[in-house]
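Take the subject:
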Amino acid sequence: MRHRLIGIAVVTTLAAVASVAAQQPASPRQAIEGAVAAPSRTSANTARDKYRHPAETLAFFGVKPGDTVVEIWPSGGWYTEILAPLTRGKGTLYAAVPSGNAKGIEALKAKDAALYGPIRVVSFPAATGQAKVPDGTADVVLTFRNVHNWRMGGKDGKDYSPEAFRQMYAMLKKGGTLGIEDHRLPENASDERETNSGYLKVSTVRRLAEAAGFKFVGASEVNANKADTADWPNGVWTLPPTYALKDQDRAKYAAIGESDRMTLKFRKP
């Protein structure tokens, strides 16, 4: 009888421990991995995880479910599909889009209002009178493959990167994080290639960020690709997923994969 009671006590204790463990909140990394595995993500996007390493990238940037997160220029919403379930019900997600170009986010909202409806759409860079992220409110600002676009400029040829960094600095809280991923140009390459290839030097991005007031925290090689020599006929767009040369040498570029990318973390003092 005594052994039976001991057995019952052990089982009860184990059940209680399991129950408490089940109630423990997930770690930030577990929450990120859960969002990456969300069934709401499209198969076309998950197929690129092997190139974009979203779980490792977001973990490096220190994104947490309860954060106020700003995604700069989300376009079709590749990362939005991860950030929306990650912040749902706990944090706040802003989609900072080019003025008048929120088609990608609007499509996601129409597809699943419960998941994407709470996303707050603002303009970036925001002109006077346009909706923007309130100053000093963001925990994390993320921009994936966008700095080269600002650097190359619009139709007027103007370099918009200084203003972009100024506005990103303004929207962050003190101690907030700026996470940048972009196509990496070797430091010994000609500066002129930054104007037309889609690649940027790490030193250029650091200079722009530090000029705006950011402090460099560190870099990760999680998105590195040594097979990318960054000297392709049509710039970075020669590689997947764009394949600018269409079927010409497609197998060659598919084997190389997506670009070699810098992954940089900065902090607002």
In short: The chain has a mean pLDDT of 91.
